[in-house]
Amino acid sequence: MPIRLLPPGIEVFERGWLSANNIFHFGDENVSLVDSGYCAHEGLTLELVRNALVKHSLPGLNTVVNTHLHSDHCGGNAALVKAFDCEILIPASEDQAVIDWDEDLLSYQNLGQECPRFAHHGLLVPGQEILLGRFLWQVLAAPGHDPHSVMLYQAEHRLLISADALWKEGFGVIFPELWGEPGFEEVAQTLDLIESLPVSLVIPGHGKPFTDVAGSIAIARSRLDYLASGPERNARHGAKVLLKYKLIEWRAKDIDLVADWIENTPALRSAAKQLNMDMPEFLQWLPNALVKSGAAKLEANSLVDVA
């Protein structure tokens, strides 16, 4: 990790694929965490925050900021509020959905995932600035992977918290396209925005921070061109990612229970339609696709995660 490019007062807790990276900010007036991981990992999230507070002799955590409300980015919110009585800030366009805890608008039921209910205390409005630790960060709209997602940009130090809009080698699944809403053009526009910024270091939602921004944007554009050239490609990729994500949580699962989960996950039913598969064919194809790619294996009657 290019620590030398991180100014004092910022630490990155690199997680994995089930829990997004957490970015810890601390200053005299504010201690904040960007993104809180998945609920199954909330114990580790609390431990990471507590260790950082002790390390820097800090009294507590003031704020949790969510770049978007996918379960791997906000699943630890409820536990952090309970432990630290901190405030939660979410993208402004998710305001009413969280107030109502609207399962039709929030992604958890649609994607077959879990997130403990939480309340929020403030909004992230694109075009405005927020204080995180010692520095002001600009809130930037970043639709594509999720229509409500935002990025955070620190101009003085040329830092970008990109969430799932840009990784070192790609970006997050373009979920809106799975249920027939636009996403490809939004990803392209977000990449254009990133390219227009002076950025020395990107802190992605998953993976190590990186400095070759131009190289990563080129990879992302190539990936986008591939997916957009045949919508079934995005459906195929998104379906495999959703099952792999759930399998990371399960570690192993009886294949009949895997089939039940697939059949009851709306985003996967939509993917099956885009792939012109009936459900029995899709139930056969999807686990085998993970096995074929090396992301899983079959043992007896169970689907088993392969790291």
Describe the structure.
With 307 residues, the protein is an alpha/beta fold. The protein has two domains: 3-228, Ribonuclease Z/Hydroxyacylglutathione hydrolase-like (Metallo-beta-lactamase, Chain A, 4-Layer Sandwich); 232-305, Orthogonal Bundle (Arc Repressor Mutant, subunit A), CATH 1.10.10. Helix content is 38%, strand content 20%. It contains eleven helices and 14 strands. The protein has helices spanning 42-55, 71-74, 77-84, 95-100, 108-111, 184-196, 213-228, 231-250, 255-263, 266-274, 279-293; strands spanning 10-13, 22-26, 31-34, 63-65, 87-91, 122-124, 129-132, 135-141, 150-154, 159-163, 201-204, 252-254, 296-299, 302-305. Helix 8 (231-250) runs antiparallel to helix 10 (266-274) and helix 8 (231-250) packs across helix 11. It is globular, with a radius of gyration of 19 Å. The mean pLDDT is 96.
CATH topology (level 3) name of the largest domain: Metallo-beta-lactamase, Chain A
In CATH, the architecture of the largest domain is 4-Layer Sandwich
Look at the structure and name the CATH superfamily of the largest domain: Ribonuclease Z/Hydroxyacylglutathione hydrolase-like
Strand sequence of the main sheet, in spatial order?
Answer: 1-2-3-4-5-6
* Poorly predicted runs: none
Helix percentage: 25-40%
Structural class: alpha/beta
Distance between the termini: 21 Å
Mean pLDDT, as a whole number? Answer: 96
Instruction: Specify the number of helices.
Output: 11
CATH class of the largest domain: Alpha Beta
Question: What number of structural domains do the residues give?
Answer: 2
Estimate what percentage of residues fall within beta strands. Answer: 15-25%
Global geometry: globular
Number of strands: 14
Roughly how many Å is the radius of gyration? 19 Å
User: Sheet bearing the most strands, described?
Assistant: 6 strands, mixed
Order of helices and strands: EEEHEHHEHHEEEEEHEHHEHHHEE
